[in-house]
Write a structure and sequence with these properties.
The complex is a heterodimer.
Chain A lengths: L2 H22 L5 H7 L21 E4 L5 E8 L2 E3 L2 E5 L4 E7 L4 E5 L5 E4 L5 E5 L5 E7 L11 E7 L19
Chain B lengths: L11 H21 L14 H8 L3 H7 L4 H4 L18 H12 L8 H7 L2 H13 L19 H12 L31 H13 L9 H8 L2 H12 L14
The chains are: A alpha+beta, B mainly alpha.
């Protein structure tokens, strides 16, 4: 092992250590964003691009039968306000916050997902019983916190409709 | 300086490689990203936009605002109930609406061409002028605010929504974002707003004809409200009852 190899190794380690710091200094660079990890988002520009744009929120049914639910928690609403999911299927929940720290919980279940601005919280949920679940914020987030509630509708798997992209975020229409 | 200096720590070849990869990747990733996203508004509340929106020249704005007098009133209070009062509204709130009119994210036959004719600096100046206007009543002014008092049952219904919202349906209280309890960034105060304008906007949000709210809070809330509640809220704010925290003025 010669000094040149050691030097290159140390330089690489130093460069890797600086990657998280680019987030603090707001360096907006696609590769750095990729290297920092896919669990980071800019909470101020969720509506402009990325996976949390309006038409991508809600329930997405994949070809293999798995389900992804994307949500935003903001003061004092969960967006979309009502979501529809099939029963007995593992649901990949991806949720982020646009402002404060919130906590998404489903009444009558043990699930609670804390959401932080700038971070995507991932959770795998499964609802065995069909029915309506109240979605409640369990982390004090401001003067409207107590009214931060929405609804999750679980329907039997065979009744779960093939969602068109524009219906993802709206369970009232279904 | 010798490139192959063995005593130095800094490695030029790695630096150049990194710089090249960063430049190439930014080109590739920017070019490859072309999904048809629905974007409600181009505004983001970064420190730069907040500084830009709140540091206009109010005196220059006053001269520019002569064009706005006809509809929005010479003192920022409109003579028509369906036109918004702008006096004392947060500079960020008016700035965002003008930017959305400029980008055609909020539709209005009157405001879109006007906003398009303004430069970025004009918008900042006009906005800081209206934000500085006083809200006290002026007898010489031809304002129509406040309008008549709502019936006591309507006022009680609105007052309840403004103070507490409706937890069962997931409707947050109006005053948690529109003041006076708290203001979210870029959210206007409704204390001095005309009733018909409030009603028009609530119905626009509910039907989706107005869809420029970031992360859709108002579209969700307006759709959850009933027809009766929307009218009650518009009458409540139009009568000037939103000046104090709701509940204290319902019996006035």
């Amino acid at each position: 092992m010669n000094w040149r190899k050691v030097r290159t190794f140390l330089f690489t380690v130093l460069a890797l250590c600086l990657i998280p710091a680019t987030r603090y200094y707001q360096v907006d660079e696609p590769l750095l964003r990729f290297l920092r990890g896919s669990l980071h988002v800019d909470p101020l520009s969720l509506h402009l691009s990325g996976e949390f744009v309006e038409n991508n929120l809600g329930t997405e049914l994949h070809a293999d039968g798995s389900v992804t639910v994307r949500m935003i928690a903001e003061q004092y609403l969960f967006v979309p306000h009502c979501i529809l999911v099939p029963a007995g299927v593992p649901i990949n929940l991806r949720i982020t916050s646009a402002d404060a720290v919130h906590s998404l919980s489903f009444e009558g279940t043990e699930y609670a997902v804390k959401t932080l601005p700038g971070t995507i919280s991932k959770a795998e949920l499964m609802f065995s019983k069909a029915g309506k679940y109240k979605t409640v914020c369990r982390e004090f987030c401001g003067p409207g916190h107590y009214a931060m509630r929405s609804e999750l509708k679980v329907v039997p798997r065979d009744q779960f409709p093939a969602l068109r992209p524009e219906e993802r975020g709206n369970c009232a229409a279904q | 300086m010798r490139r192959n200096d063995r005593t130095g720590f800094f490695d030029w070849s790695l630096t150049w490689a990194l710089a090249f990869i960063l430049a190439a990747s930014s080109l590739v990733l920017v070019a490859g990203d072309a999904a048809p996203d629905r974007v409600p508004s181009l505004v983001t509340w970064t420190p730069e936009t907040i500084v830009a929106a709140s540091s206009g020249d109010a005196f220059r704005g006053m001269l520019l605002a002569k064009r706005c007098d006809h509809c929005h009133g010479s003192e920022g209070f409109s003579p028509v109930t369906s036109t918004p009062n702008l006096a004392g509204i947060s500079a960020l709130a008016i700035w965002k609406q003008l930017e959305d009119f400029r980008a055609h994210k909020r539709r209005s036959r009157a405001m879109e061409p006007i906003a398009e004719s303004l430069s970025a600096r004009d918008v900042e100046d006009v906005v800081s002028y209206y934000a500085k206007l006083p809200i006290y009543p002026d007898p010489q002014d031809n304002r129509v605010f406040p309008q008549g008092q709502p019936s006591s049952s309507r006022a009680a219904l609105a007052s309840r929504l403004v103070t507490f919202g409706d937890g069962d349906r997931g409707i947050p209280p109006c005053q948690a974002c529109h003041g006076p309890v708290a203001y979210k960034i870029g959210v206007p105060s409704l204390a001095n707003q005309n009733g018909d304008y409030v009603l028009d906007e609530l119905e626009g949000f509910a039907s989706g004809t107005r869809a420029n709210d970031i992360n859709q809070p108002m579209r969700i809330i307006a759709a959850l409200l009933s027809e009766d509640e929307r009218h009650a809220l518009a009458e409540y704010y139009g009568a000037g009852l939103g000046l104090q925290p709701a509940g204290s003025t319902a019996k006035k």
